[in-house]
Amino acid sequence: MKLTAIGISTVALLIILGLAMAAAKSRGMAPRAGLVDGRLAACPASPNCASSEPGTDAKHAVTPLGRVTWDALVRAVEEAGGRIIRDDGHYLQAEFRSPLFGFVDDFEARRDAASGIVHVRSASRVGHSDLGANARRIARLRQRLAGTR
Predict the structure, then answer these.
(1) Higher pLDDT residue, 125 or 109?
(2) Looking at the whole model, is its pTM more than 0.90?
């Protein structure tokens, strides 16, 4: 079968439309966030989530942010493009949108009362793979915070 320019254009258009529809769906969904027994929720089996909670499996695990000031964390999230949804000084919930299609990812942070360490979780609302975007977001936040401890 020979692909013509029209056929290739049609396939490309369908892919773009599918991505736009999935992004719109993510914007219309309620955040999948909140503490479960005082901890950030576990990541799903899909590879579109990263978490520093103890017990997170290796494919989803990232290093916690450590002992950072809460104000610096809030500032870093906002400077990175996050929109704060909830902040009670010990739990933070924010949304990040991808630049091209506007896919929404949910970001959460919680301060462990016993150790003072800030644990984080970032997860896509839709799709299977995020191509490492959520783990990179956490790494960039860690870099932003490195000079504020």
Answers:
(1) 109
(2) no
